[in-house]
C-alpha cells in the first residue's frame, strides 16, 4: 500500500525549521572535524530530510545513520562530511560513487564536482534517488543500476571514486578506473568489529598506487553479486 509519506505528501516542515536544523547539524560537525568550507557549504544546502521522508525532522538532522529502505542505511552526516572532504574535490572532477542509496551523498558530490556517475545494486533505491535529485533540480548525475564491484567501465576514467559500503578489499576494477592523479576513498574490511574496518584513501600517480588509512569506521558491506 502506498502511504502518503511514501508519495511525498507528508505535512511538510516549514522551510525555516529545516534550515535551522541543517545549520545546527553542520555547526556541530564543523566544531568537531576540520572539514573544508566548500564541503560545509554543500552540507548546509542539501535538504537531508528530503532523502529520509518518513522520519521526523529532528531524526533527519541527527548525526546518526538512518534507514533508507531495503535494509540499507545512509551514513551519519559527519562520516559523509569526512569522506567528501577526503576526496579533495575542486569542482572540475568526474566522480564515480558506488552505493547510491538515498542519493544524499550523491547530491553533495554533485554540488562539489562537474559530473557524478553513481552505481546502485538495488533498482528501487536507485529510482527513488533519481526522483529526489530530479525534484531538487540536480542535473549533473548519471544513475546506473549494477554491481559496484565492477565500477562503471563505460564512463571511466574517473578523477575521484567514492565507495559508500565496505568491500573486504578495494575492488581492482575501481583502481583501474581511477584516472592518473585521481583519488579513491573507501571503507574496507569485514563488518565484524575484529578487526575493525578502515577508511582508506588511495592516490594514483604515474602508475604508482599509494594507500593511507584515515581511521577506523563501521559500514554495511558492499553486497556480493551472484
Ligand atoms: N551513499 C548512500 C549510502 C548508501 S549505503 C546514502 O547517502 O544514502 C550503501 C549502498 O550501497 C546501499 O544502497 C546498497 O544497496 C548499495 N550496495 C551494496 N552493495 C552494492 C554493490 N555490490 N553494488 C552497488 N551498490 C551496492
Task: Write structural notes for this entry.
- The structure is a single chain.
- With 226 residues, this protein is of the alpha/beta class.
- It is built from 7 helices and 9 strands.
- It has one domain (17-217): Rossmann fold.
- A 7-stranded mixed β-sheet has the order 5-4-3-6-7-8-9. A two-stranded antiparallel sheet has the order 1-2.
- Helix 1 (15-32) runs antiparallel to helix 2.
- The longest helix is centred in the first third of the chain and has 18 residues, at 15-32.
- The protein is globular and about 50 Å long.
- The protein starts with 14 loop residues before the first helix and ends in a 9-residue tail after the last strand.
- Residues 1-9 have low confidence and may be disordered.
- It binds S-adenosyl-L-homocysteine (SAH).
- Residues 68, 72-75, 98-99, 101-102, 104-105, 119-122, 125, 147-149, 164-165, 220, 222-223, 225 line the site of S-adenosyl-L-homocysteine (SAH).
Give a brief description.
The chain has 7 helices and 9 strands; from the N terminus they run H-H-H-E-E-H-E-H-E-H-E-E-H-E-E-E.
Bound molecule types:
S-adenosyl-L-homocysteine
* Total number of distinct structural domains: 1
In percent terms, what proportion of residues is strand?
Answer: 25-35%
**Reported CATH architecture:** 3-Layer(aba) Sandwich
Structural class by SSE content: alpha/beta
Q: Which topology does CATH recognise?
A: Rossmann fold
Largest sheet features: 7 strands, mixed
Gross geometry = globular
What is the CATH superfamily label? Vaccinia Virus protein VP39
Major sheet strand order: 5-4-3-6-7-8-9
CATH class: Alpha Beta
Number of helices: 7
Segments where pLDDT lies below 50 for 5+ residues? 1-9
User: What would you report as the Rg, rounded to the nearest angstrom?
Assistant: 17 Å
Q: Specify the helix fraction band.
A: 25-40%
Secondary-structure element order, as H and E?
Answer: HHHEEHEHEHEEHEEE
Roughly what is the average pLDDT, rounded to an integer? 93
How far apart are the first and last residues' alpha carbons, in Å?
A: 30 Å
Number of DSSP-assigned strands: 9
Amino acid at each position: 500500500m502506498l502511504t502518503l509519506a511514501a508519495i511525498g505528501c507528508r505535512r511538510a516542515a516549514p522551510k525555516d525549521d529545516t534550515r535551522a536544523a541543517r545549520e545546527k547539524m553542520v555547526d556541530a560537525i564543523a566544531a568537531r572535524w576540520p572539514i573544508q568550507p566548500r564541503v560545509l557549504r554543500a552540507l548546509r544546502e542539501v535538504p537531508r530530510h528530503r532523502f529520509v521522508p518518513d522520519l521526523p525532522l529532528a531524526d533527519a538532522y541527527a548525526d546518526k545513520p538512518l534507514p533508507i529502505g531495503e535494509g540499507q542505511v545512509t551514513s551519519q552526516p559527519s562520516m559523509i562530511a569526512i569522506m567528501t572532504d577526503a576526496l579533495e574535490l575542486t569542482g572540475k572532477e568526474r566522480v564515480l560513487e558506488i552505493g547510491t542509496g538515498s542519493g544524499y551523498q550523491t547530491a553533495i558530490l554533485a554540488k562539489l564536482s562537474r559530473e557524478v556517475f553513481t552505481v546502485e545494486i538495488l533498482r528501487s533505491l536507485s529510482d527513488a534517488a533519481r526522483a529526489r535529485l530530479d525534484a531538487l533540480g540536480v542535473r549533473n548525475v548519471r544513475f546506473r543500476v549494477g554491481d559496484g564491484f565492477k565500477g562503471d567501465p563505460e564512463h571511466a576514467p574517473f578523477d575521484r571514486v567514492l565507495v559508500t559500503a565496505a568491500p573486504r578489499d578495494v575492488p581492482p576494477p575501481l583502481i583501474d578506473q581511477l584516472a592518473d592523479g585521481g583519488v579513491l576513498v573507501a571503507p574496507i574490511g569485514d563488518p565484524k568489529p575484529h578487526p575493525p574496518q578502515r577508511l582508506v584513501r588511495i592516490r594514483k600517480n604515474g602508475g604508482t598506487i599509494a594507500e593511507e588509512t584515515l581511521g577506523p569506521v563501521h559500514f554495511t558491506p558492499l553486497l556480493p553479486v551472484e
